[in-house]
Amino acid sequence: MCGIVGISAETNVAGEIYDSLLMLQHRGQDAAGMVVCDSEGNLNSRKAKGYVRDAFRQNHMDKLIGSYGIGHVRYPTAGGAGKEFAQPMYVNSPYGISLAHNGNLTNSHELGIQLFHAEMRHLNTDSDSEVLLNIFAHELGKQREIYPKPEHIFKAVSKTHRRCDGAYAVIAVITGHGILAFRDNNGIRPLSIGIREGKTRDEYIVASEDAMFSSQGFKKLRDVEPGEAIFIDKNGKFTSQQCANDPQLRPCIFEQVYFARPDSKIDQISVHKSRMRMGSKLAANILKQRPDHDIDVVIPIPDSSTTAALQLAADLGVQYREGFVKNRYIGRTFIMPYQEERRKSVRRKLNILELEFKDKNVLLVDDSIVRGTTSTKIIQMAREAGAKKIYFASAAPAIKYQNLYGIDMPDTKELIASNKNHDEIAKEIGTDWLIYQNLEDLIESVGEGNPDIKEFETSIFTGEYITPLGENYLADLENSRQDELKMQREKSAS
Q1: What would the DSSP string read from start to end of 403-452?
Q2: Exposure check for the chain: N or C terminus, fewer CB within 10 A?
Q3: Percentage of residues in the chain having pLDDT higher than 70
Q4: Do 283 and 245 belong together in one domain?
């Protein structure tokens, strides 16, 4: 999962891109980057590993001059962990194109072979983002236009759609021409457009989430449609076109569960309201299974589960309490690269308020259970704090399969629900009782926000993938996601 943003304005945009990346930091903490283009067609860029605040200092910002540009925060799902994998990525032909990508291509290996043997393009990394960049650049170059018009750019996007499988939300700078954004034909990864009135023209923002729009003075215009491309030229003229043959909106449901900010709307669905409905569904299921429950207090594991836990407590008619103090300077444990690092981070990230646990029957609520590492440690902490009984509720169903579309789910064998039943999971994480959200309830919770969506991407729960898969893709992906191999790549990059 990554965060991407592009802004086109009358004045320098680097400061606003920086602020936007800060508000997208939850989507990627491995690296950050920015590219801006000035009126003379000069590119100015900065990329570095780490958080946004560490990647950009004042001396960097002073050199980032340009009225349109893009930014990226990286959470690695494909490729290595070195600085060379930071985005935006750049290719000089045609025009000079810088690209930021959120998602995963499922046929990147095959496309990489095509690029080398048939199109004589050299790739510097094994990143699927670099593959996507070169595919688009090749198709745009085939238009053979010195001064490309929107129709030429959209034709290149259409060709890209035909060749690329998987999930991708893309924002790119075409040097000297403007900003392009497009979304895969299933709309798996989110992308929104905002607008504000400038002195002489409209100004635009395109981003993974719309939460930062109001703080930057933008109003949400709409979401980018699946398969659609938009182009904002260097003078601020906005053009859009549907570029896919058979688009169908099938967004990733885990955005609503975990990744997105609660103050975002994705494909017209309020994340906050979705999570409230998740809490209500969980409460109804608890009352069905245990009408005479003895829960004294509901406590969320911050932050993604907080909204669901609050509504769950209200529906159960029991006290809601915040029993954990979160260190905001520690990254999200779900996206930390190795098991040992995740295990250590739980205690650094969360400190416990013992008075909320002592001598109480506690229902802990989390957004999901992935490996079980975090859940086990937190339950242990609650017992040490004096809880009499500890129950555990997951706002998402059991995660049994790896994600192919931009979420770095671990090797299937590392998923606690992949080879264990309900009772075995409860025993392993150390809870007295465990309840998962039903998939049907989750779909209803999210889908109520936009009844026009007929299907969600739910493969981590079902194992049913909605896009074609390259040869041996699943096996190769599993191997690449093993912690041991990740550690080796990290060492080689350092």
Answers
A1: --SS-----GGGSTTTS--HHHHHHHHT-SEEEEPPHHHHHHHHHTT-TT
A2: C
A3: 91
A4: no
> CA-to-CA distance for 452 and 249, rounded, in angstroms?
9
In DSSP terms, 168 is beta-bridged to: 103
Report helix, strand or coil for 241: strand
pLDDT digits 0-9 by tens, 140-152? 999 999 999 999 9
Neighbours of 329 (CB within 10 A): 8
- 309 with 389, same domain: the answer is yes
Q: Which residues are catalytic?
A: 2
Compute the distance between CA of residue 43 and CA of residue 97 in angstroms, rounded to an integer.
Answer: 10
Residue at a domain's end among 250, 282, 299: 250
Q: What distance in Å separates the CA atoms of residue 81 and residue 480, rounded to the nearest whole number? A: 12
What is this structure's pTM? 0.93
Query: What's the CA gap between 487 and 437, in Å, rounded?
Result: 33
Does residue 262 form part of some domain?
no
d(CA 7, CA 207): 9
Tell me the C-alpha distance between 315 and 295, whole Å.
Answer: 13
